Fold this protein.
Amino acid sequence: MSFIGEILDKFSIDMKENVNGYKITVINGVGALVEGHRGVIALESHEVKLRINKSYILIKGESLKLKEIGDSDAYIVGKIVGTEIVRNEK
């Protein structure tokens, strides 16, 4: 079983439910990988907002920079102090 498969199994999440999902990995508070984003909403030195479906991921920190970005992956470096999922209530 793959690493992601094992994680989904531990959380009792069906792989089909995760197809259009997102993942956030923070490494030692100095970098973050966001998988499954749908574009950048805002990029500032203290926060980065990345679109996911009808919500967005908010990465909070200091000296944040977008190191690399692809169609669905984004690498953010700087001092990461928190992450939050903000649901659009419309």
